[in-house]
Amino acid sequence: MKKQWWHNKVAYQIYPKSFCDSNGDGIGDLRGIIGKLDYLKRLGVDIVWISPIYSSPFVDQGYDISDYYNIDPLFGNMEEMEELLEEAKKRNISILMDLVVNHCSNQHEWFKKAMADPDGPYGDYFYIREGKENGEPPCNWRSYFGGSVWEKVPGTKNKYYLHMFAKEQPDLNWENPDVRREIYKMMNWWLDKGLAGFRIDAIINIKKDLTFSDYPADRDDGMCSAHHMLEHANGVLEFLQEMNRETFAKHDAFSIAELFNYDPCALEAYIGEHGCFSSIFDFSTEMLGGSEKGWFDLKAIDPNLYRDTIFESQAKCEGIGYMANIIENHDEPRGVSRYLPKEGQTTEGKKMLGMLMFMRKGLPFLYQGQELGMENTVFSDISQIDDISTKDEYQVALNAGCSQAEALRACTFRSRDNARTPFQWSDGENAGFTTGKPWLPVNPNYKTINAKDQIGRKDSVFSFYQELIRLRKNPEYEDVVVYGKMVPVFEDMDNVFAFYRVTDKKKLLVLANYQNEPVSLNLKEIPTRVLINNYEDLELKNNTITLKGFQGVVVE
Ligand code: GLC
Ligand code: CA
Fold it and tell me: Is 343 in the active site?
């Protein structure tokens, strides 16, 4: 694999609304981010992705963009954005913005013009189709946020426009070369400003099955999940290769895609040496426990399954490309609440999970608060939920016969709002996030889980993440941590997650005991050095190592 400048880096996602509020309106902002760059530097972060900060009506928290060339006043203005780029540069931090171009907002001027004149040039910026003769929508696809993907064009007899997500997020017609040209122009404009690249949203959806035909229903509503469309849509790579040629390649930009439901045979075309993206997120574990029926039907994730899924995913991309590893993001519950069994949701368990993420091959991509071990929050009523997706899933659960209490339990566990509660800076009022009223309530556990308490405290989760980052950047180990081949070991032992990282020169062994009971392991060689340990001590006699519950170590 050809080495790239970003391979040895550490990346971090900021969810701007919830990171740091500088002016007391309860909403995080650019000035807040600028003020925390030194915090990120101290942690050891090199690349920062900021979720959307463009003008938006916030139907889907900024993933509905009404003007790609402006900063939403909630977050600040263009001067502050430029200041952020400058201040980040001084600290050798690269900034990525979110690229949301499968759809825009229904408040975007293109869409307003399209609605005013569906047969005019802007009508062709979107997918506008005639409904069926009986007045039903053109086909039976269900949008990702519930309901039909089709919405009536106001004032027409039987015309509909397509939206894979909310009805306020109309899909852009990528078949139209004018649309593609506009998008590339906008991307280059940002890259010229000094942006290092983009995180690319929901990108597999840009290619449609243009027959727009019905598929077999998968729920009682007679509809079929829109993602089935992807199996019938061919040619997404042509768009993406063009996008790469016209934008990223010209700037040597970093591009990382949110890519679900892709054809695994195409991995090389996506992230190989001549791929259309630098990298993609490895979502293999995020997919675990899911159900076509909805969130209410989620299954618990067994440690063995978690481990095997990661091994499989690593094997798939070995020698092809470099994926980014995560345990959570703004669309997922908190990783420590999801992947650790209840008894493992401790400081040690959280460190072990972080170690497994950092020590496997790929770009470690942290989500804000992960470095503190932030957890899922508590909801006592559906009215406390902001997330559009959780509201839909709550309804799906009720429709399927769940009681309100069951629906609430299932949906709040999976809710995207878990990751969106304000960052816990201190044990002060509102966790130090704002002097006003936070837009989403702070997780009540901020008194015990917060940055102020953890920075500089040797045994904190934060310090442990710093240690993991230092190991990745230690010249003696960098090569093996960044490029070493990942070789599974002790795979037939339940709840033991272990692997080697190997180069010609070095060999590390990563061992995690993913359970409460201690476990003894017989090693082939006697370790020469302990590099990482989430406990103070380690029981090592000759070549037998005994790990306590949720103990994780890296030895040479
Ligand atoms: C992506 C984003 C998510 C958003 C969706 C629609 O999945 O990560 O937050 O709701 O796309 O833009
Ligand atoms: Ca603010």
Answer: no
